[in-house]
Amino acid sequence: MDLSLTEEQKMLQQRVREFAKKExxxxxxxxxxxxxxxxxxxxxxxxxxxxxxxVPTKYGGSGLNKVGYVIxxxxxxxxxxxxxGIIAGHNSLAxxxxxxxxxxxxxxxxxxxxxxxxxxxxxxxxxxxxGSDAAALETTAVRDGDDYILNGNKIFITSAExxxxxxxxxxxxxxxxxxxITAFIVEKGFPGxxxxxxxLKAGMRASTQHEVILQDCxxxxxxxLGDEGRGFRIALGTIDMGRIGIAAQAVGIARGAYxxxxxxxxxxxxxxxxxAEFQAIQWMLVDMATKIDAARLLTYRAAYLMDxxxxxxxxxxxxxxxxxxxxxxxxxxxxQVLGGYGYMRDSRAQLHWRAAKLTEIYEGTSxxxxxxxxxxxxxxx
Length: 381
Hints:
alpha+beta, four-stranded antiparallel beta sheet, 17% strand
């Protein structure tokens, strides 16, 4: 088994790492403080081909496989957790959803502007009473001639303020439960579509989230994504793919925190020697490095299985679960290594520490990942 990166993958990693070092790392703290979607930075990422990574070149994308995608996301999140979140959400929740579930006509219309970064994409599933229980959503869709009329409110929608294309999930019949859920491609300019409150998060604050309001929002029937009643399957399939991106984000966040701690431990002197010479600190660094490597390998495995068109639901859930919990542990230890300096708001350690928590929550909490994994392993036995 060859676990080494190909030359092409090494070149991609180096290219994205240089971009992240030059464009992201110097302003990561500033972006987090501003809590605004970084429009110009998104355009720079687009010029590097990062806004349509797995989209085929015929639709304007870079044509990368999923392993290449997670390599890039790790590098972005290592330098700036918010940017890692923005690019991952745009790629996995918008581009990937359309790539796997849209008609050819829909792909030709919507994928090129998304892949080229002319606009951002978003996915609107979560509601006040429908989070982990996605089948409980209350947003309705009613057929009206050649259109559907959508009504409801979505919450915590990543990049909604910059998104020109949003995948919205609504129910045609609440009595049918998940069998009534249908997906729609909604454009920002459709009548009845608007943004509500902006959510103020603890971390990844430049990866903004808004409420999306649908008030008699008229959507052409041609913008229905898949058949009526297939929305729940589309949502689950998209989230499965998205979990791999979240795992890559978590690996990057953990690595960023670890590298800050390692550098500090080598430089900081106490009692006549560098912190890194104390066994207690060495063991912390060892545990951090080991778990980051394990999380990365789990993420690569899930991405590889997806590339091979093999089942990857269990592996994606395992990768997200382990990587996100690793990000929490590593970033917490990084703050501890830096001591008081790590708790200051101009410290990169606390930036990653605050960001890490979100990876345990969005696109399926750690508890939901355990339920998914349990279901899969019991089915196999």
